[in-house]
Amino acid sequence: MLRIENLHVRAGNRDILRGVNLSIDIGQVHAIMGPNGSGKSTLARVLAGHPEYAVTGGTVAYRGQDLLAMDPEMRAREGVFMAFQYPVEIPGVNNAYFLKSALNALRKHRGEEELDAMDFMTLVRDRMKWLDMDETLLNRAVNEGFSGGEKKRNEIFQMAVLEPALAILDETDSGLDIDALRIVARGVNAMRGPDRAILLVTHYQRLLNYIVPDVVHVLTDGRIVRSGGKELALELEEKGYVWLEQAV
Amino acid sequence: MSTSTQVVQDLARREYKYGFITDVEQDIVPRGLSEDVVRLISQKKNEPAWLLDWRLKAYRIWRTMKEPTWANIKYGPIDYQNMIYYAAPKRRPSLESLDEVDPEIRRTFDKLGIPLEEQKLLSGVAVDAVFDSVSVATTFKAKLYELGIIFCSFSDAVQNHPELVRKYLGTVVPYSDNFFASLNSAVFSDGSFAYIPKGVRCPMELSTYFRINARETGQFERTLIIAEDGASVSYLEGCTAPMRDENQLHAAVVELIALDDATIKYSTVQNWYPGDAEGRGGIYNFVTKRGKCLGVNSKITWTQVETGSAITWKYPGCILQGDHSVGEFYSVATTNNWQQADTGTKMIHLGRHTKSTIVSKGISAGHGQNTYRGLVKIAKDAGGARNYSQCDSLLIGDQCGAHTFPYLDIKSSTARVEHEASTSRIGEDQIFYCRQRGLSTEDAINVIVSGFCKEVFRQLPMEFAVEAQKLLSITLEGSVG
Ligand SMILES: Nc1ncnc2c1ncn2[C@@H]1O[C@H](COP(=O)(O)OP(=O)(O)OP(=O)(O)O)[C@@H](O)[C@H]1O
Ligand SMILES: [Mg+2]
Asked: N or C: which end of chain B has fewer CB within 10 A?
């Protein structure tokens, strides 16, 4: 479903990604780990189409389309979702209203009818249950004054409502307490299925106890230096990244 | 960065859809201003001598005044002798029946979304339609009159209720108030008049829709609203003008009077032609609006959404004279392309335990310049007076400007005044976040801007909040990148 080949990305005047290769099949869950500053968020943001990055080489095919040629909103409408490492606040904009606009933009793109307020609320209530979310968050402004953990949970909640084909979760586990981690993992697992792929960026093997990945990749200094099964995460936990960097 | 900048710029170039011209035969007085012209206007309107006298006093004092220069706006000289001060459609309806409105004018208002047939109007809104210098129709007059409410054109009020007009005219904005108010007092041609008697809550929204049509003509309307003891009314004002290359002057005056326990809510959605993307043409909007909370516990709320005009100069204010009276000002002012706005409010606390709230939201895009100018004055005897002010500015793009001038003049030691201000730029990251969820850049900007304006929109009656939001998105079209 997603095929990244020899991807080179620049930001400012630095090469951040320096030849990333990565393929994800539909139905799979992949995890990306790697040291701070290695380019994990950059990869996620480039896949989502953030205008700050310049792709200087390589290709990304998504369901047979040239992903890099699409506007961010087109990518979203075609099923690419990114949960942000640092979700932004949009003061004054009702969270439920925002999500409804987003959902209807996707539905419109697919030629489906827009959901009315009733059907939308039914869907939303159901997904809030998955995530044990406090309903008051719905009527607050998007992420405004949310705690770090609430922001992360709100991202996964949006994903659960928007039902993307490809979900990229950038450090969704960071900042969650132990209970919240379990709940969010439950939400992600509920989304797991044969017609969806998930790419998880994380620093902690702990998350992978809850969401067991099919493949684990290690990104160091803008390149994927090792890929393996879920055991790779355990090995990293034990030995750190230095071990891999020396091996390169 | 570049794509959103592109969209911002495109937004800025959106078209003004009210810019058409209506072809009707006009009765026009000769160009220029003199005592004769003032007399001619008064005579055309068949006015009593005291009113002509009042106009002449205003004219004479105006001649000694200078156009104010303190505002943060730039524009070429206005030639007051090269302007037409009165233009009225020739075919005047008797105003007894709405059926007599010139069909061409009726079509104009239809096109603007203001049908003049009562059954077609939004239920619960009575409309006074002003076309150039005169009122052409007022709906639901009879129904309101059953409750003792007088809602009619200013000219009709002068003919039919001269005692009320004479008692209150100029008591809030005297004819000597300022350059533009004096000019208006000399030459005002029409406007709306509303009187709500004791204890009556007006059951529908009253509204005036102003349309400038004639070329090289200034529009000088005057509105007077009086709410007697315990009365309440909500009033709405809308306006548009054709697209023309030359600038046109609009200098209106609005006076509100609230007696004991009375409430007046005055809302404006201002959408005069703003000029084109190069800054050619557009309305010069120099307006004096003021309300007097004369009675105890009275309350006046100004809500304005200013999206149009090349230049906006207006400071709707409240004189809080009655003890425990309340003044509120909620404003959204948008400037795009080369628009300039210098707007804000004046809250004058005279009575004890008076309270005022100011919420101002300025949005600048393109080369727009947006200034908030506000005065909070608390007199020595206004013990326990309180004011809260909040002024937020939002910048879209990097060629626009936002300025804030809050003036405080506090003479009472027991007064409490709070002021908060912020300036922010629409963030690339906010836009990206919205786009990542599937919204277009334009929708993203609209969503972010409407969130920014929420506290003000909340003050508007429902249908108008929707309208205001639409207008805002049109104004900002083409503004982000
Ligand atoms: N717009 C930018 N301009 C310049 N440098 C950038 C930009 N964005 C990212 N970088 C740099 O690229 C490198 C990779 O950043 P990135 O955020 O992708 O790292 P990460 O792997 O997600 O790190 P962390 O684990 O700390 O989240 C960092 O050194 C960062 O400072
Ligand atoms: Mg990161």
From this structure: N
Which CA distances in Å does B100 have to B95, B103, B106, B113?
7, 8, 10, 19
Residues 1-40 of chain B with CB under 8 A from chain A are: 1-4
Number of structural domains (chain B) is: 1
| β-bridge partners, B327 | B300, B356
Give, using CA atoms, the residue closest to atom 7 of ligand 1. Answer: A11
CB-based contact B226:B260 (threshold 8 Å) = no
For residue B110, give its domain range: 3-479
Q: Is-contact B376 B347, C-beta < 8 A?
A: yes
pTM score of the predicted model: 0.82
Query: Does A71 contact chain B (CB < 8 Å)?
Result: yes
Residue B135: the pLDDT is 63
Distance CA B478, CA B9 (A): 4
Measured from the Cα of A171, ligand 1's closest atom is 27
The C-alpha of A244 sits at a distance from chain B's nearest C-alpha, in angstroms, of 34
Among B336, B179, B308, smallest CA distance to B248 is for B308
Contact A158 B437 (CB under 8 A): yes
In this structure, are residues B62 and B34 in contact, taking their beta carbons and an 8 Å threshold?
no
Q: Which of B1, B431, B436 to mutate to test the interface with A (most CBs of A within 10 A)?
A: B436
